[in-house]
Amino acid sequence: MTVLIALLPAQAAAVWIFGVRTLLITAVCVAAALLSEWLIRLLFKRTSTLGDLSAAVTGTLLAFCLPSTVPLWMAALGSVFAIVVAKQFFGGIGQNFVNPAIAGRIFLLISFPGAISEWALPKAQQTADAITGATPLAIARAGSEMTPLWDLLMGNHGGSYGEVCALALLAGGAYLLFRNVISPIIPLSFIAAVAAGMFFAGGLNPAYALEQVLSGGVILGAVFMATDYVTSPMHKGGKLIFGIGCGLITVAIRVWGNLPEGVSYAILLMNIASPLIERFTQPKIFGAQKELKDVAA
Question: What is the Cα–Cα distance from 57 to 93, expressed in whole angstroms?
Answer without folding.
Answer: 12
